[in-house]
Each structure stands twice: as C-alpha cells, then as structure tokens.
Amino acid sequence: LSAATEVRCSQMPTYACHRRTPLNHHNQTITNALEILARSAFFQESDVRYLGFTRAASTLKALPYKLQSVNQAKDLPWCGGHCMIVIQEILEHGMCREVEVIKNNEHYQTMELLTGIYGVGVRTAQRWFKEGIRNLSDLKTMECKLTAEQVSGLRHCKDLQQQVTLEEAERVGQLVKDTLQRFVPDVHITMTGGFRRGKEVGHDVDFLITHPNENALSGLLEDAVGWLETQGLLLYHHLKKRKPALRSASSSMDSHETCYAIVALPSSSSPWNTDIEVKKCNSEDAERIAHPESPNSLNSRTWKAVRVDLVVTPQAEHAYALLGWTGSKHFERELRRYSLREKKLSLNSHGLYDLEKLSGSLEC
Ligand code: DGT
Ligand code: MG
C-alpha cells in the first residue's frame, strides 16, 4: 500500500455523496457484517445505531484497498467505537461473534422473513412477532386481517424474493414503454433505482415518466393500469395521486403521482413476449395470470411476478426526481444532509429550496 494511498484514505470525505462508491469493492466481509448489525438495529427501530453501522459500511465500500489492520481504519470517518471492534474481530478471526449470534437469532430471522414480504414494514413485523407469527404458514392463517398489498405480497412472495435480473428489468421496461406509448406516443421514460446505478440485479424496477406538456401526463397512469389489467398482466396496483398541498421544501417525502405495482412479466419465450402490440394474450391466458394459484396456472407458469414503481413527474421537476429515485438510499440521505447542513438548501425529489429565502418570504 503506497503512502500516497494511505494519505488519500485519511482524507476520505465524511459525506457519502462526496465519495465514489463502486459496486464491487475490497472489504465485502466487513461491510456485510456491518450491514447485518445495521439491519438488526433497524428491526429494533434504533435509528442512531442503524445510521452508525450504515455509515461505517458506506465508508469502507469507498476504500480503494482491502483493510489489513485496524490501524488503517482508525482515521476513516464513522469507523470508531463499536464499528472498530467489529472491524478488528473480522481482521483477526475472519468473523464477528456478535454478527453470528444475530444471524441465528429468532427475532432477526423472523423480521427478515416478514419485512421481506411486499407491504410489510418494521412496525407491522414487530407486532406480528409479538403475536407469535414465525413463518409464512402462520401468516396465511390470518390472511383476512392483511391489507390488499400484503395479500398480494404474500401470494407472490416466492417470485418477489427472487432478484430481478437486468434482462428481466429490460423486458419490464419494454412492457412499460409499449403500454404508455399506446396513450402518449412521445412519452419520456427512464429506468431509475439500482439498475440506473449499474446494478445487474434488484428487488424491483423503478421508472420515471415525463413529457414536456404536463397535460399529456394527466390520466396516463390510470390508462396504463386499465390496459395492463385487460391484458391480465397486472397482479396488484396502488395508485397514489399527486398531492401538491403536501409538498414542502423541508419534507423528504414526495408527492409525485405514483403507481406501485406487481406485474406478471411474461417469460422471454412465452406468447406474451414484449411484442405485445402484435401478440395479445387471450382471455383464458389473462384469467390464468390474474389467479396465479389456480391449479392450471401453477402447472404451466410462463410468467414471473415483478415489483414495478411508475413515477410521473412534470418536466420542471424531472431532474430532481431523477436524482432522488436513482439512489442509493444512503447516498440520497447524505446528499440531503450535505445540502441542508453545509449549503442551507433543502433538497427533495421536487426541487432544491433556499431555506433563508423561503423563511424571508414567509416573514413578508
Ligand atoms: P433495488 O431495487 O433493491 O435494486 O434498490 P434500489 O436502489 O433501486 O432501491 P428502491 O427501488 O427501493 O428505490 C430506488 C431509489 O428511490 C432509492 O434511492 C430510494 C428512492 N425511493 C424509493 N421510494 C421512494 C419514494 O417513495 N419517494 C422518493 N422520493 N424516493 C424513493
Ligand atoms: Mg429499485
């Protein structure tokens, strides 16, 4: 390791948004361990510990070499205290006992399982754990108490727990494009999320949709949903309307019109291949897709359930939404923290706001 590299590492920026974080890095064993500790803290709703472990993992992902000794880590941002003990243990013994204990812990395993179901957040999973739910069979016994989103999440959990490949994401992209262009031929669609960052797999596929003429976007998601439903390609959807009243400079929540969906992605060799203009499925096929657990369909599955987010933005907000929906979540959090702390600017996926000017205009 050259002295120059060590010097560069001691000057590693504290904000993740100022660092290059490659997809493949040199300290995977340590970052995996720190991320397990972060998830465990998240499951206990301990934000401070969650952030501490996430920040340390993020720093190590940006390190341009494999750590050989704790000494090399001592000046790195966010790597002190508890994280340093974890780093030291892994460097000396190849594993961390605390992490191994967590991985075998019933609460952790159950929370992983339950929060892995679409529509189930930490609070709900905690409640279910306290009620004695430990596995998917337990959950199926209380299906009548689940939300429509959770019922769909549970019904399609085998597919949804599998990662979406880039090839599948591209086919989803083609399906989305073919669908939206039926209604607005020159609509502009961008795949965002992890795939835009160069990942080859993801848990869903995210898209931003825009058009220079805002009127062209009005009702577009409803039209798309309606058409996909008639084709039997929509297994679940929830449409969130644009709510400008909720939009605020200080809020990281966004109010873009959004469709959270589970689509039935035809397999590449199925008759519903992406050339859907020409090859529409017949009503029998659609029925099979709409009711996936019917015995007929299980024997002849030619599709995979895939989570898709469609976000509509006016063109004036598109750049901010693109930045916000490209991720990663930690990068976005750090970018907002940097904007606010260092620049007194509030960033969200609608715009960048000067808080001093805003408070001035409010005082006026
Ligand atoms: P994945 O899907 O596992 O490959 O990971 P990502 O990075 O695609 O994560 P995902 O799909 O949860 O979200 C993509 C990015 O969009 C992520 O940085 C966070 C952001 N995002 C997710 N949901 C919302 C939302 O409701 N509002 C805003 N503004 N951003 C969101
Ligand atoms: Mg994603």
The gist of it:
The protein has helices spanning 3-10, 28-43, 47-61, 81-93, 97-103, 106-115, 122-130, 136-140, 148-155, 157-161, 166-181, 193-196, 214-217, 220-230, 283-290, 295-299, 315-326, 329-343, 355-363; strands at 164-165, 188-191, 201-202, 205-210, 234-240, 257-266, 303-312, 345-347, 352-354. By secondary structure, it is of the alpha+beta class.
Structure description:
With 364 residues, the protein is α+β, with helices and mostly antiparallel strands. It has four domains: 3-102, DNA polymerase, domain 1, CATH 1.10.150.110; 119-155, DNA polymerase, domain 1 (Orthogonal Bundle), CATH 1.10.150; 164-325, Beta Polymerase, domain 2; 329-363, no CATH class. Helix content is 49%, strand content 13%. Strands 2-4-7-6-5 form a five-stranded mixed beta sheet, sandwiched between helices. A two-stranded antiparallel sheet has the order 1-3. It is globular, with a radius of gyration of 23 Å. The relative contact order is 0.10. Residues 273-291 and 293-299 have low confidence and may be disordered. 2'-deoxyguanosine-5'-triphosphate binds at residues 193-194, 199, 202-204, 206, 254, 324-325, 327-329, 332, 349.
